[in-house]
Amino acid sequence: AQSVAQPEDQVNVAEGNPLTVKCTYSVSGNPYLFWYVQYPNRGLQFLLKYITGDNLVKGSYGFEAEFNKSQTSFHLKKPSALVSDSALYFCAVRDPGGYNKLIFGAGTRLAVHP
Amino acid sequence: GAVVSQHPSWVICKSGTSVKIECRSLDFQATTMFWYRQFPKQSLMLMATSNEGSKATYEQGVEKDKFLINHASLTLSTLTVTSAHPEDSSFYICSAQGPLKNTEAFFGQGTRLTVV
């Protein structure tokens, strides 16, 4: 079965330090991977995706993610965290079946401290 | 990115009444729309998938007679919570998707439903 794991409920980072939010996946075939961010009482905003090509994907707000096929991982990274990056982050993989639905991880809350 | 508008952003209703939530894709044609429910501090739970002009596909455990979904056009889907009860209180989010697997889904801003 297809699945996404985000092993950390919360990640704490000091402002200015690099951040990593982890994601591993299990899917049949080539994975289509996505990262979304959610601010309180809001919908999800798209950050970046991996479809094919370079393993390092750059996205919105300075975020990037590295696709690692051998480790089945797609960790989200940012070189220098901002307090405004504090939010809930979701990793998702596209279900290879019909309808293009997304399978989400449980989410990781990122807290960036001044 | 594309814009998906969800309305209302919040609603309070009495038990036993019905509430309709609209989801519109403003600048692209959404062949598929998804409806999610999110409990506090939890991930999104997919409720149903709707394709324009056809019946929605509901996830296991979701009552289709309670959560009525209509996808009448490529830019509009609606979710109607019928005979609402306090346990239906939740955050409901829609997303819209084009036909290609390599494109991202775009999400509405969510609707906070409180049933009193």
Number of helices of chain A: 0
What structural class is derived from the secondary structure elements of chain B?
mainly beta
Number of strands of chain B: 11
The oligomeric state is heterodimer
Principal-axis shape of chain B equals: globular
Rg of chain A (C-alpha, Å): 14 Å
Number of helices of chain B: 0
Largest beta-sheet details of chain B: 7 strands, mixed
Low-confidence stretches of chain A: none
- In whole angstroms, the N-to-C terminal distance of chain B is 36 Å
Give the largest interface pair and sizes.
Answer: A-B, 22 and 28 residues
Intertermini distance of chain A:
41 Å
Order of helices and strands of chain A: EEEEEEEEEEEE
Order of SSEs of chain B, N→C?
EEEEEEEEEEE
In words, what does this structure look like?
The complex is a heterodimer of chains A (114) and B (116). Chain A has 114 residues and is mainly beta. In chain A, 0% of the residues lie in helices and 51% in strands. Chain A has strands at 3-5, 10-14, 19-21, 24-26, 33-38, 44-50, 56-58, 64-68, 73-78, 87-94, 102-104, 108-113. In chain A, the strands form three sheets. In chain A, strands 2, 5, 6, 10, 11 and 12 form a six-stranded mixed sheet that branches. Chain A starts with a strand and ends with a strand. The relative contact order of chain A is 0.33. Chain B has 116 residues and is mainly β. Chain B is built from no helices and eleven strands. Chain B has strands spanning 4-7, 10-13, 19-25, 32-38, 44-51, 57-58, 67-73, 76-81, 90-97, 106-107, 111-115. In chain B, a hairpin with a 5-residue loop joins β5 and β6 (57-58). Classes of the chains: A mainly beta (114), B mainly beta (116). Chains A and B meet through β6 of A and β5, β9 and β10 of B.
Give a concise summary.
The complex is a heterodimer of chains A (114) and B (116). With 114 residues, chain A is mostly beta strands.
